[in-house]
Amino acid sequence: MKKSQIILQVFLALSLSIVNAAWAVTVPAIFNDHMVLQQNAEVTIWGSGKSGEEVTVTGSWDNKPVKTKASNLAKWSVKLKTPAAGGPYTVTIKGYNTIVINDVLTGEVWLASGQSNMEWSAAAGIDKAEQEIPKANYPEIRFFSVAHQTADGPQLDLKGEWVVSTPETMKHFSAIGYFFGRELHHELNVPVGVINSSWGGTPGEVWVNPEVIAGDPVLTKAAAQQKEVEYGPIQPGKAYHAMIAPLIPYRIAGALWYQGESNTSAPEAYATLLPALINNWRSEWGYDFPFYFVQIAPYKDYGPYAGALLRDSQRKSLNTPGTGMVVVSDIGNNDDIHPRNKLDVGKRLANLALNKTYGKTERPASGPLFRDMKVEGRKVRLFFDYAENGLVSKGKALTNFEIAGEDQNFVKADARIEGNTVVVQAKSVKNPVAVRYEWSNAVNPNLYNKAGLPASSFRTDNWPVKQQL
């Protein structure tokens, strides 16, 4: 064969490979080996392809092909009905080329997000790490860690991959996400997939579509108070565009959230921000999935009231339907913004989900949450949710209660438990009108329900709070 013919054949082969590559059907990184798809659901599989290209997607659980064509924007998507928990399966995507995704399980999929306390791994240092890491061999628990990225507009893909839970993979994954997933796996006996999209030090605004922030003057003002830091973005939407938007509409059972430490510069605005984030995500996904969050732990260096105000804003966010809150003030560390007890945080989130999402009502969902108050002469009686079986004090007497009259001057109060209520009074306050509990930055609770979970801090007033931030 002449040299010119060889060169021509090589040229044609290369040209054909380039054309084939250009026409190749592709899928985002969230679709890869070892992934978990939400069971008993209609899940969306999507990707890119040549405009007009016929794309066929088949799940091996029923071998029923679903066909579509790539749009004039070179995008395609299909919906597959998944079976009850099981696997492993394959998902085959066929266009001009073929993609086979192996070792696919169907089970429960949860998205975990927030800042450093959600991102914190066993490798970073947690209580009982030496005992927990070697036990992390769970073939039916899978992790997907989203790499840190920012963007100015919604992205189509992100960096990450699904991995099977082993001592090595667990060590570098969100500890809370792992312990949550393990508890669900044990209780429900189904595969569990946890997607972790977190970034330490980030304020809540970066995780919301920036249009939501721009459309609300309270949120706009609060976002403007954020100061540049070297360890992450502060501008609205930067992480949302790059680390949340590319996951949509991957079907999830619900979301977990542990964030707020970086919003203590405008703590009262968080009562607007968190519901806005929840509603934004639900709107983008197209359905109202459960959203469970962790109340930030006490920490001495926020300032005297910033932490209390932020925690109270989180408590108020429970007015958003389909939400739940885990209180961790009893397992925090006043001297460390990163408490190392992640095991109990994960378990409490799992109990909350098991109770509210999966109907396991024997699991304790929450500690006491203030509901209402009644003035009885010189006393105030406080009523709580999640106190049906009674309240208990861990210690000889209840502490951290304050009471005030119309002068708004709070003084230390005596408090006692009467059944599932608390009665509060102070000798110097003859006509009480307001009560606060744990109303400082670094405090430790001793009011619990019979399930052993601590009460959230709260205040019954809405008076302005002078604070040193």
From TrEMBL:
Keywords noted in UniProt: Hydrolase, Signal
Gene Ontology MF terms: sialate O-acetylesterase activity
Gene Ontology terms describing biological process: carbohydrate metabolic process
Signal peptide annotation: 1-24
Sequence ranges assigned to domain Sialate O-acetylesterase in this UniProt record: 107-353
A Pfam family recorded for this sequence: SASA
Protein name as annotated: Sialate O-acetylesterase
Lineage of the species this protein comes from: Bacteria, Pseudomonadati, Bacteroidota, Cytophagia, Cytophagales
